[in-house]
């Protein structure tokens, strides 16, 4: 795991100027790579590559980057891990295409593969997570590439005639050509989703490279991103050729693929561990790690003293059963809130998933003991874990026949009580409810149900549930929402089960642009590499061969994944309502964070910046403070934008 950056200044520049500029850009990424740094420049062409290294494989100088290929034709700056690079080396050697190896880094393997097979075939043969900047000295082509599911970030764009690129926006901002005009339309998308979806960024003319693609730049000419792997094609192929063997065969095959992915991602020359929440996904990853390890696996959990947010006790039980070397840390509200001032710098653009706070804390805890940590992200999207997948489908089957007027009346009834009153009622009568209805924060879920009742069709339900501000164009001044994968027609999803359609759309949007961004930025903020075994593309492709009945069954998600886990951990240690990974932002905004929030939500401050309409913001703030409504997510969106704007723009 590392950080890369660079620029291409047409017409060339002096060697000293190029080194100074690229080192300035590289220095902003020291957190991504504290162990080593380097730059490579060609002043005649005006191109410069910079790299910060977090040493994971081949800790020797033989792994130094930017790295030049054996022939001298290619230069690479690379962030990530190629888990099958040893197999790739063996393939190259069998073909007689391997150079004399200088070390055992996957970077050297990548360069040799590009020499032998070209960029597209190399990317297709790689199993891993990566962002790559590759310079072809012979043809003078710069290629940027990103892994299939979007685990590693890569930004790029033309600014005043200079092509800039890097792992994080702060690296681009360090170049004097960077303009940094706010992209208002992207800001509108932020307020809808609580993140800015690819290919957009918060800045005009700066983009995120979409997952599974590469981009070629030759002089002032550049291609559109070229796909080397397509999630849409994988879904379509899987649905056209579904898994048809027995359920036992399905469990066996999933277990085999999980073992393969976990084993591949345990490769490291530094201490390695895993995040453990005690839920299905992280418990499965840890169980398979421990089954393949001769020593106790290091596992890490953050605990909260507020019971409705605390999963640490469940994680501890699973850790004890598996025999891991477990570390847990209970944090106070003050310690959690102490993370908030760091968020604008960590994320570089507005980002408002409040679970960023506990995610930072568990990453910080893990980094005190290990350099690499595996996580269970991806299981919800692949195997139907989010409550909305089965709740929305079941609800629509039950309410779709109702006249719209009746559904609207029921919606009004549900929102008549604030969520906190519903939470109280559910806590009083929880012993009377079936176990599967004992949700955490039921009040918020009932308010989401109210949105469902108002929907005209199932797709509208999904879109409402993933939207924070429902009409962001009324909040962000002078803007029109641009299209995203959630608003554009996806022909490859036609005919698929509605639950599968939701999973696919989440994999294209929420997973790469929220979940993976959240984990990458906070982990790299403390120089911790994270790996996600469930996103091995071979496992992803298999998951899309599975019928929805192997994922969601009897009102519960992840059925098949659970069957694998039950081979390692007793069912009774796992079965409980899904909690998520949150913090009590709603309470904090009425308490310890009130003064901080009031300062950022000040009407004069909002009006002076000129981006937001103060009226709806102040209305929600007043309603939240009074306790009439819980607007924590909407307000957190505004606060994260305001905090970022103050820290970045002034």
User: How many helices in DSSP terms?
Assistant: 28
Q: Distance between the terminal alpha carbons, to the nearest Å?
A: 31 Å
How much of the sequence lies in strands comes to 5-15%
Fraction of helical residues: 40-55%
Number of spatially distinct domains: 4
Which oligomerization state do the chains in this entry correspond to?
A: single chain
By DSSP, the count of extended strands is: 18
Structure, described:
The chain is α+β, with helices and mostly antiparallel strands. The chain has four domains: 2-179, Glutamine Phosphoribosylpyrophosphate, subunit 1, domain 1 (4-Layer Sandwich); 232-383 and 504-573, 3-Layer(aba) Sandwich (Rossmann fold), CATH 3.40.50; 387-499, no CATH class; 585-648, no CATH class. 43% of the residues lie in helices and 14% in strands. The strands form three sheets. Strands 4, 5, 6, 7, 11, 12 and 13 form a seven-stranded antiparallel sheet that branches. Strands 2-3-1-9-8-10 form a six-stranded antiparallel sheet. A five-stranded parallel sheet has the order 16-15-14-17-18, with helices on both faces. Helix 10 (312-322) links the parallel strand 15 (298-304) and strand 16. Helix 8 (247-265) runs antiparallel to helix 22 and helix 9 (280-291) packs parallel to helix 10 (312-322). The longest helix has 19 residues, at 247-265.
Summarize the structure.
Helix content is 43%, strand content 14%.
Indicate the topology.
Blueprint: E1 2-9, H1 15-27, E2 36-42, E3 47-53, E4 67-68, E5 74-82, H2 85-94, H3 106-117, H4 119-125, E6 128-136, E7 141-146, E8 155-159, E9 162-166, H5 169-173, H6 184-193, E10 207-208, E11 213-218, E12 221-222, E13 226-227, H7 231-240, H8 247-265, E14 272-275, H9 280-291, E15 298-304, H10 312-322, E16 325-331, H11 333-337, H12 343-347, H13 356-367, E17 372-374, H14 379-383, H15 387-399, H16 404-414, H17 419-429, H18 442-453, H19 458-465, H20 498-508, H21 510-525, E18 529-531, H22 537-543, H23 559-565, H24 585-590, H25 594-600, H26 603-609, H27 614-626, H28 632-648
Parallel strand pairs: 14-15, 14-17, 15-16, 17-18
Antiparallel strand pairs: 1-3, 1-9, 2-3, 4-5, 5-6, 6-7, 7-11, 8-9, 8-10, 11-12, 11-13
Helix pairs in contact: 2-3, 3-4, 7-22, 8-22, 8-23, 9-10, 9-23, 13-21, 15-19, 15-20, 16-18, 17-18, 18-19, 20-21, 27-28
């Amino acid at each position: 795991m590392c950080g890369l950056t660079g620029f291409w200044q047409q017409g060339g520049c002096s060697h000293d100027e190029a080194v100074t500029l690229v080192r300035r850009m590289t220095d902003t990424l020291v957190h991504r790579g504290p162990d080593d740094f380097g730059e490579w420049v060609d002043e005649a062409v005006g191109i410069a590559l910079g790299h910060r290294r977090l040493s994971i494989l081949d800790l020797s100088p033989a792994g130094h980057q930017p790295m030049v290929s054996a022939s001298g034709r290619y230069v690479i700056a690379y962030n990530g891990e190629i888990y099958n690079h040893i197999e790739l080396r063996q393939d190259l050697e069998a073909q007689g295409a391997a150079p004399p190896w200088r070390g055992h880094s996957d970077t050297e393997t990548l360069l040799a593969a590009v020499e032998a097979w070209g960029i597209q075939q190399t990317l297709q043969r790689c199993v891993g997570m990566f962002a790559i900047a590759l310079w072809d000295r012979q043809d003078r082509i710069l290629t940027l590439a990103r892994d299939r599911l979007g685990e590693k970030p890569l930004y790029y764009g033309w600014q005043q005639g200079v092509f800039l690129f890097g792992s994080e926006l702060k690296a681009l901002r360090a170049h004097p050509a960077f303009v940094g005009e706010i992209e208002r339309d992207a800001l509108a998308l932020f307020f809808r989703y609580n993140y800015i979806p690819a290919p957009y960024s918060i800045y005009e003319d700066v983009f995120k490279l979409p997952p599974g693609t590469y981009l070629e730049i030759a002089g002032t000419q550049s291609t559109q991103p070229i796909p080397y792997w397509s999630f849409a094609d994988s879904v379509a192929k899987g649905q056209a050729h579904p898994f048809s063997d027995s359920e036992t065969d399905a469990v066996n095959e999933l277990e085999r693929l999980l073992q393969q992915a976990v084993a591949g991602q345990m490769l490291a020359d530094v201490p390695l561990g895993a995040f453990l929440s005690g839920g299905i996904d992280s418990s499965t990853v840890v169980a398979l790690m421990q089954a393949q390890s001769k020593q106790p696996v290091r596992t890490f959990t953050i605990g909260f003293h507020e019971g409705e947010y605390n999963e640490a006790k469940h994680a501890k039980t699973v850790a004890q059963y598996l025999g891991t070397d477990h570390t847990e840390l209970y944090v106070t509200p003050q310690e959690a809130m102490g993370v908030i001032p760091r968020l604008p710098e960590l994320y570089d653009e507005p980002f408002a998933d409040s679970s960023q706070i506990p995610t930072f804390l568990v990453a910080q805890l893990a980094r005190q003991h290990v350099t690499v940590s595996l996580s269970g992200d991806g299981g919800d999207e692949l195997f139907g874990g989010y409550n909305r997948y089965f709740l929305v489908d079941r609800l629509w089957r039950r309410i779709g026949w109702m006249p719209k007027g009746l559904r609207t009346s029921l919606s009004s009834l549900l929102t008549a009580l604030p969520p906190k009153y519903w939470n109280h009622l559910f806590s009083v009568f929880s012993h009377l409810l079936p176990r599967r209805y004992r949700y955490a924060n039921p009040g918020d879920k009932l308010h989401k149900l109210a949105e469902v009742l108002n929907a005209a069709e199932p797709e509208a339900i999904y879109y409402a549930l993933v939207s924070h501000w429902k009409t962001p164009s009324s909040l962000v001044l002078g803007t029109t929402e641009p299209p995203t994968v959630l608003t554009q027609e996806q022909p490859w999803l036609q005919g698929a089960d509605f639950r599968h359609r939701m999973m696919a759309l989440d994999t294209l949007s929420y997973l790469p642009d929220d979940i993976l961004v959240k984990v990458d930025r906070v982990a790299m903020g403390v120089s911790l590499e994270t790996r996600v075994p469930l996103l091995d593309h071979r496992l992803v492709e298999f998951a899309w061969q599975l019928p929805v009945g192997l994922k969601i069954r009897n009102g519960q998600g992840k059925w098949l994944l659970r069957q694998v886990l039950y081979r390692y951990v007793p069912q009774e240690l796992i079965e409980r309502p899904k909690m998520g990974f949150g913090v009590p932002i709603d309470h904090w905004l009425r308490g310890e964070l009130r003064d901080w929030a009031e300062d950022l939500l000040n009407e004069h401050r909002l009006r002076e910046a000129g981006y937001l309409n103060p009226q709806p913001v102040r209305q929600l703030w007043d309603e939240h403070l009074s306790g009439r409504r819980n607007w924590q997510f909407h307000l957190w969106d505004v606060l994260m934008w305001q905090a970022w704007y103050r820290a970045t723009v002034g």
